[in-house]
Batch of 3 targets.
Target 1
Amino acid sequence: MNIKKTAFAQRVSQNSKNYFPRDLFDLEAAGAFLESMHAMFGLDTLMTDRHGAILMVHGAFDGFVPDVKNKPGNKIRVRERTVCHIYARYDNVAQEKHDEVKTLLDAYIKTLEGFSEKSYLASEQAVYIDELEQQVEKDAYQVKYSEQNDPLTGVLNRNYFMSRMRQLEEREGVPTAVICVNINDWKFFDDRFGEEESDRLVITVADILRTEAREAGFDKAVIGRIEGDVFNVLLPDASESAAAAYCESIQRACDCFEDERLVPSIAVGCVMRTNVEESYKDVLSDAEYAMLENKFEIKNTPGYRQKIEKAINKS
């Protein structure tokens, strides 16, 4: 079964209830024909929408109140749904012209119905095609996003981060700040509170990395999750002082984060790539070493362990 064809068929069978006569045909042109029928043959007509609201009158209908439920007149239907009604009075039509005028009105109604049907289908097809195109674009974006981004945090995954790093290397742009970020004691939270809370810790840190980069004006920042608790950040065209300020801001944001359980603490290593001959791989290795030095310093700071374990004490 073709799902798209079925969906379109269901749409076409149902959506005609959302259309009004003005959506399906030219009311002015329709009125001009009925006016001509009145002038030439004395045929009185009154047109209403599906609910009985009067759209136009040609002839004598003083005091007439349409009852579209019990006395609907001539129905104009699209996909088995009534879109309007035409009431006709032959009181002023010559007897010998009666059948001729009725035949002419019936033909007009069939023509109006046929035109409305085509107009309805054309409109629905246009909307459906537009929706399909939007869905195709959305699906393509989602596929591309899933190929490039870490599903948990939304930052770049390892493979795409490495690809972006190679692109920057080929572009030979300097300076670039190369930053390694590692979550301190991530396993501690994973062991004690489980995967859900440790994932929340990773997401929290990723959000901080993005937010601080945006607030610092690093629109070209490349942020990737390299391993479970490791992130790398590239700041193209950043000065050494600006890169240092960013590193301070992400650590400060983690230290200031308040939560009943989570205590996001990160070790950060930052090395500047200032020579196009330098390999990003080598610079990143230096940044990792700097991060490990920072980690050792942080974890030996008085009060660090008590702060990390505050969640257990509250539990």
Target 2
Amino acid sequence: MRLENLKQDFPKMPEELRERIEREVQKQIGTTKKVERRNTVIIKKSLIAAFAAVMLLATTVFAGVIYQMRSEIKGKYGVNIKGSVEPAENVSTIKMEVSYLPEGMVETEDGKYSYQDALNKGGVSICFYHIDTEDAQFDLLMKNVIENEDIQIGTHDGVYLKLHENKEEEISFNQRIYVAYTEFSYVMEMYVASDVSKQEALKIAEGIQLLSDSSEAKEGVIRSYSWSDYITSQTEQEKIVNDDIWQDQSVLKNTHKIGEAFLAYPKEEELDFGKIEIKVTDVQISDQIELLNLSKLDADFKREIEKEIDAEGKLLPTKINYIKYGDGIQTVDQIVDSREVPQKLVYATVEYTNIGEEELSEVLFLGSLVRIIKEGTQVKMYDGEEAKEGSAWDCAQITGAANYWEMWYYDVHGGEKGNNYIMNLKPGETETVHMAWIVSEEELEYLYLSFDTYGCYELSEHALEIGYVDIRQ
């Protein structure tokens, strides 16, 4: 299966699920640093692998009876969500039907729905856990809860939660709905953004129906997460690879300079993707956005960029918030300080050339801006300021567009949804793509470009084989 097809056929792990896993992993391994990138917190490689494997499981599940789902208060801000399952006979493929969406809300990808004026930002994101453990227990501790309610969704038990948020973005995923589907041993987890009211979210949940379907049609098929794999990812500390570990700088031996060509897929087993050569021909740094072709941005992103500039088109400063973590049970995270930092536009010109003998279609491209810091002969990913011993804060959190790692601007669009695909690339043909990011001025000395289409923000084996492009200023 081609990578781009994989991305289309299987839904992404909801970003807030990644964040919860990361925070729990940090607690287990004794770290306190929160690594925020775009709207997500990057998880460890073992967790990525575990969930990627789950996403590729067959869709046939075991039926059962979840005879109870309820919430239990823990301290001031903790809530335990519990349910029990009694497995039964095998059933066929499970599909989801959604009969109600609020006015103006549309499906943006499998299991994700957003309002048309806030595409890919808010709305709801739906995933399912298949309860497959021997003890058949669903037991999830949620922290930083400021409102909870046991609910009834049709004939199914459920729980509604509202979470405390420090994020200053206009829209954040600060609500959850859990529903136990007794006939399929499934628990639904719905991530609900702040642009969706509690009442509307409950209506959406009430309109969700799971159906047994023996047909081969893919539309609506549920791709569930295995609950046993989720538990394993929380407990197998020895398998966690911390991306905050210093490594010898020799891992960067494959680093490229601006103007140097390299292969997009250097591994022999990736030849099915095509023989594609990448070259960064130019990188410009500016405090203006005049380099951008604003006609390439949809209305949503135009509104986003307007928040980052003044009347003359100059980038406004970004704000760094300093967060003191709460335990999520008796205390919540608090912003204890903040400061402003100038922002810069990073604008790259990238050439993609088909050096093979066959025409390629729907060529996936992805440019990410990674930060790498060096000390002596050691390197590691730079994730912003680190709290020192005795500091009044635990995490420095950049707000706004400077928090994005993936390219948020690109001027070539293709594929079914008009996103980051080159539609056709004939042998010997070159397509030029312009990409852009907004960064804190303080990070210019750490910047490298990654073209790993797996989107892994660590010094991973695959990204290192492709090689980063050094664009440090």
Target 3
Amino acid sequence: MTIITAIIPIFNSEKYLHKCLDSIRNQTFKDFEVILIDDGSSDGSLAICEKYTALDSRFRTIHINNNGVSHARNIGLDNVNGKVVTFIDSDDYVEPQLFETYITTFETNQDIDAVKVGYFHDFNLSPKIVTCTKDNIFEDKSDLFKYLEEIQYYSFVWNVCLKADKLNGLRFNEEINWLEDHIFCYQYYLSCYKVAVLSSPLYHYIVNSDTETLSNVKNPDIIAKAMTLEYELKKLLNAGKYKEIEKQIVLNYCHNVHRMVDVLYRWGSDAKSRKKLSKIHLLENQLIYKEEQIFFNTRLPFFFRDMILKVLYFIRRKKQ
């Protein structure tokens, strides 16, 4: 049985893919498999995947029709042979000691269910190192969540390694393409006994001009679903233990509600969608922006609320 499986979803990544895959072939720990999921690329990505598959028997290529990163990662999870699983984005690369660090940590403490590492945030040739002062092991989920937020490790899926037999059928939510990695990790953490958080920065997270950002999420239904799932899972992890964190969870939810309303009117969604989402049940009744205060004001008929916001956003576009 293979020790570690790396799942790499790929979509039109030919500019970065060689560096990513070479960094994996150069790992000091050699007992691994790499599952390359080509998600219907239209550039030369598939050819690169097939080249590495022919070159190195530890690499496997699965070609699928384009269906999004969550579906691609789930296909990878369905084909795992390793005892532990990690995810790497196709435009990133990793340090040679990454896999060895993961495996050594698991072997040192059999009760550990996940290992998180630091990373290099590479943006415009000015890398920022995101790390903590020392290695830690957490049993308390609230302590873990608080610490990950404070040191900016967050719950990215690409700087964590998980036990395959602990997944218990857990998969990425294919109905959303925003916060899906955080939601997946939150769900996994809830089932963990211990999580190791290491100080070593071993992953290079590359921010490219063509990398998807939060501002590119223009589907208000996806935002509504994702923000609700994220909020509920964060509340479960914190379990009311840290009041400051609780406030941040609520504030983040409020910001996401604002993002949803902004998308509804900035990007010209249809009236049916606007009306439907104006009726959603808000998890925290704290509307901190005037747009939401108008949008969710049930004392006014939806027609008037909708008209006010359309005029407001029309004026803003004219001023830009």
